[in-house]
Structures are given as C-alpha cells and as structure tokens.
Amino acid sequence: MRTSRNFYSRYVNKNSYISILIPIGLIIFSSFFYFGRFDNSNLLNELRAKSINTVYSITSIVSSPISLIKNGLKSIYEIQNIYEENQKFKEMQLLDSASFQEMVSMKLKIAQYESLLNASNDIEYDFRTSRIVGDFSNNFNGTLIVNSGKEENIEVDMPVSGSNGIIGRISHVGESLSRVLLISNINSRIPVIISEDGYHGMLIGQGRENPIIEFVENIEKISIGDLVTTSGKGGIFPPFQLIGQVVGKKSSEIEVSIFENITALSHVKLLNYKLKKEN
Amino acid sequence: MNLSFKGYLLLNGFLLFFISFNNVFNLNLIDLTLIMSIFLYSIEWNKSEWLVPLFLFAWGIFQDILLGMNLGYSGSIFLYFYVLSQITSINGLFEQQKIKFIIFITALLILFIFKNLFIYFNYQLNYLSVGELSAFFIMVLLYLPLNSIIIYSQKKYEKIR
Questions:
Q1: Which of A78, A191, A196, B86 ranks highest by number of CB atoms within 10 Å?
Q2: Interface test with chain A among B55, B67, B132, by most A beta carbons within 10 Å
Q3: Number of domains present in the structure of chain A
C-alpha cells in the first residue's frame, strides 16, 4: 500500500514537473522568437503576409454576430448625426465654393510656374480606395487591415491616407488583404517638413496617439500650430502631404497631433506613388 | 481541470472566439490579451496537462498574425499566466484566493515593468503614460469578477461530471 502511494506521488510529481517544464520551454522559445525579431526575415514576412487572409477570414466569421450588432448600433448613432452635419454642410457650402475657386486658381498658377522653371512633375499619382476591415490601432504596434491586396496590384510601402492626411504605409500584402503600419506605430519613421520655412525632421511613432519629431533643425524657430507635411525624402511618401500640426515642444523633440482620426475612418486611400528616377 | 476531447474542443473554441473579439473591439484601456490571461490564470488546470501549453503557443502565434505583433508576444503572455496557475495549483495555493490575487498583481506588475523596460531600451521611448497605468489598474479590477465567474463555472462543471 505504501509502495503504491509512493509510486503515485512520484508519478504525480513527475507529471507536475512536465506540466511546468513544457510551458516554460515554450515561453523561452516564444521570447527568443520575439526578442530576436526573426519574423522580420524575408521568408517569415512572406509567410505572415500569406497567412493574413486565412487568419482574418476565420476570425471575421467567428466575430460576425458581434460585429453585426456593433455595426447596427454604430449606424443608428451615425444617422442621428447626419441631420446636424447636413445643417453645418449647408452653412459651409458658400465658404467652400470660394476657397475651392481659390485653390483651383493657385493650382493653375503653380503649374504655370513649374513649367516656366522646367521643374520635374514628380507628385502626380493615382490612388485606390480601400475599406478598413480590421482596426488594431490601440496597441503600441498599431496597424490596420484593408481589403485590397496583390489582386489589386497593392505593393509594400505604398503610402496610405485618409481624407485629411497621411496615416501610414502598407507593410504586408496578402492576396486580398493588406496590413497598414500606422504613423503611431512604434516602428514608424517618416521624414517630414515643419512650418512654411521647411525645417526637416523625422516623425517617430510613439505607440500612442501623438507621434513626435526628432532630429529637427532650428527647433527654436518652430511654433505651436505649425503644419507638418511629408518631405518626400526616401521616396516612399510623396512630398507636401499633410500629416498634422505641432501641439507641443521640448528641447529636442516636437509633439504632433495628426489630422486624421484613425478610429473614425472606414475607408482609406492607397496612393500609387513611386518616385520617378531621372537619369 | 481534467480535459476530455470535448473539453479540448471547447477550450480551443473559446480561445478562437476570444481572439476574434480583437476584430470588433478596439479599446485603449482594455487589453484583450490580458483578459484572456486572467482566464488562463483563474482556471485550475490538471497537473499532468501538457497539451494545453501547445495549444496556447499556437493560438498566441495566431493572435500575433492577426494583430500584426512580432511573433511570440501573445504566446509568451498566455503561457506566463498558465505557468503561474500551475505553480499556485501545485503548491496548494489555488484555493487561497487572497494569496492568488496578490500573486496575480505581482505577476502583472512584473509583466508591465518588463514591457516598458523592453520598449525603453529597444526603442529609446518612454511608453509609460496615464493610459498605460489605467489599463493596468483596470486589469487588476477585472480580475475579481472574472475569477469568481471561472471558479463558479469550474465547480459547476466538476459537479456535473
């Protein structure tokens, strides 16, 4: 009896160790994988891009009932706002028509000056509108999933913008879905210009709403409210695309509030911009 | 909890269902990965269980692909709380709810400090903010009701069995 009890306790102890050792081993393996950033390799990047479609399809089927309820509630809330917005729109219409005319005449003027200066016309591009199907902007690795992929000739590094300004760029492309790396993502770096005087800097994602600009020249000359646009350096983003405005200033960095409210977006523009290389 | 085939199916279904919640809810203050961890910590697992960690690892990778995180992030968190649950269970602390709660807070604090230090050293960025601290306290507050629900369901399940 005693022998069998000892055997049992030894058996249980052995199994207890196994039940702890296996997960500890897996934690070490996961951490090694995470900290080593092996998934940034080309092969794993490709695998990851390919698996987006499958993973998203499965989860969207499972979450569809909750998603339906959520969308229904959102629609009711949106309908409530439409009347108010319509009134505001009517008031703004007169003002908008005046500023639209001003913009068109300015655009014509710029075109004339560019042709006089024989300047290269490298900011012409078309875009594709795409619907946001997954919003994961709340964590430090903020991303979106949009319903355009290789089938629509979407490519990695295509700039993505909302109606008010740039929000990020394409980081992975699947067959029919792509992932957008947001400006707020901790891995995001965008060369920018600040204010009308064109001071250069690097916009760095902070994993939260407002990104910051570092490596700014003449930081003392920058004031709160100055506009931040893309500089076009690096060839990924077209130049002079609005991003946001300066809302805070420290000795070596500037805080920027981006114009686009990412959580309120339902569609985005994928800009087909490629820097024309002149030989 | 000694899992049967049906139990494994239910567990995997629950994990898939919960991970899919990320598609619908995008809340700054509530981290669904940590809520899942509360569930994993609150359940009393069978001491000779070895399949569940493998499932957790696989579902962690699945969630990382969905969220666009570096592979290994979610899996590490899931397994971390699973191991803690096993350790409290093996040392006979599972029934002592106060000690279990203190262990949970300590574990969450360690995870929180580790995450912030990692971001600080890797990205030269101070990620600590009011929002981040609030998220931590919300998780601590959510532990109590979620733990009670799990204990109640588990006892009921054992009774039916």
A1: B86
A2: B67
A3: 2
